[in-house]
Amino acid sequence: GAVKAGVHKLSGGVVAVKNFKKADVKHDVEAKAIEREIRILKNAHHQHIIRLYEVIDSPTNYYLVMECAAHGDLASHLEKKGRLREAEAAKYLVQTVSAIGHCHARGVIHRDIKPEHLLLDANYDIKVTDFGLSAIIKPGQLLKVACGTPSYSAPEVIARSMPPPPP
C-alpha cells in the first residue's frame, strides 16, 4: 500500500497513513497478508516496531494510521550519509535485533528485513515496519517457502529457488 503523511485530528500530531485499495486486492493471499500485518501490528508493543494507532475500513479502502517516522528509512539515510560510524551502525543493529527478537518470541517472522523497512523516528531510532510478508508460526515449526527481496537473500536461499542447471 501507498504511505502518506497525515495529521491526526484529535492530537494534531503527524501520522503515517498506509492505504490499501480494496479493488487492488485481487487474491485471497493478498487479503490475508493485509489482515496478518494488521494483527501483528496491533499486538506488537515494542519501542522499535512502528505503532499502529487505528485501522479504518471504508467501503473502498483500508487505512492503517501509524506512527510517523520523521527521518524516513535507513536506505535513504545510508544514501545521504554514506558509510556510518561504528557507534551509529551498532545502535541500529542492536535496535533492529531487539525488535526482531521481540517478534520471534511471539512467533512472528518478518521475512523481509531490509534497510527500506527500517524507519528512523525523530530521535534517529529504528522502527521496524512492513510486515506484509510475515508469517506467524508455532514453537518448533519451520517455514518451507522462501520469500522476501532476492537482493537481500542469502545465496543458498536463491540457489534453492532456482531450477537446476541442465545436464
Describe this structure in words.
By secondary structure, this protein is an alpha+beta fold. It has four helices and eight strands. The strands form three sheets. The chain has a four-stranded antiparallel sheet with strand order 1-2-4-3, with helices on one face. The chain has a two-stranded antiparallel ribbon with strand order 5-8. A two-stranded antiparallel sheet has the order 6-7. Strand 6 and strand 7 (126-128) form a beta hairpin. The N and C termini lie far apart (43 Å).
**C-alpha Rg, in Å?**
17 Å
Supply the number of helical segments.
4
Instruction: Specify the helix fraction band.
Output: 25-40%
* Order of strands across the main sheet: 1-2-4-3
Order of helices and strands: EEHEEHHEEEEH
Overall geometric form? globular
Contiguous uncertain segments of 5+ residues: none
Which structural class should the secondary elements be placed in? Answer: alpha+beta
Largest sheet: 4 strands, antiparallel
**What is the terminal-to-terminal distance?**
43 Å
Q: What is the strand tally?
A: 8
Mean pLDDT: 90
- Which band does the percent of strand residues land in? 15-25%
